[in-house]
Fold this protein.
Amino acid sequence: MSSMPALARLPEHVVSLSDHEAHARTRLDDNAWAYFCGGAADEITLRANQQAWHALQLLPRVLQPLAGGHTRVQLLGRTLAHPILLAPVAYQVMAHPDG
């Protein structure tokens, strides 16, 4: 596990997903990096996830009115303030002492 102090703010150069990955590599020890970056067996699902991510396309809507915009999402009859969810994962403590 890394003995680095908690990161208060991301460096300005970290803006894309690949930037986050490269930055994480500098902060995690080899065991944690291998665990978080690897997949089971032949890593077929890992590759499929990466391909699905690369297939996503954003549709910019330039100069559209943004009044009333929000990030809320309806899920299973509940309104959530943001569309980001994280299922329980194991070994978070490998990335941060608070786990």
User: Anything to note?
Assistant: The mean pLDDT is 86.
